[in-house]
Amino acid sequence: MLQTVDLTSGAGLADLAAAQAAAEGVLGFEETIVELVRAAIGSPSVEAACAGEYWREAYVAVPVEELTLEGYVDLVFRDAGRGDALVVVDYKTDAIRSEPTSRAGSRTIECRAPHTRLQWERRRVSASTGVSSSSWHRCRCAMVVIGGDELVAAIEEVRGLIRSVRDAPPPLGPLVLADA
To answer: Global pTM?
Structure first.
């Protein structure tokens, strides 16, 4: 829905949420959808995007380690405050807690950050894109920004993962036949 809503005003948000809830088969969650979208469009990253040139649901394909990675970026914008550097925003709406917990398998920002960063990088970033920073906005609780040395390290980590899969692909799972 963030690909169609007016990012500056949220105009028509209730109607869009109702349509999206119906399309996704989650009737009854319209208020939650509205709440998540309002959080996203009120975030510093989205507000910065609206101040200049931006693209939503942008298709990207980048060469990495002799392969081509393809995917879609939720939001890309030129940041005038950073010399028109490209900034990539990835929305996350999964429910996680912002405070640590002693329970095994907790879903805190701290424990999800490495996985989310790798997921984002694996799908969308290569050193050849010219992206100088990235952020993902957790529509429920926080915004996390990756830039500088951390972004460089994440890109190199992803390149290593890509090389390992390229050079030694994992075996395919069992074949399951099904009638069409």
So the answer is: 0.65
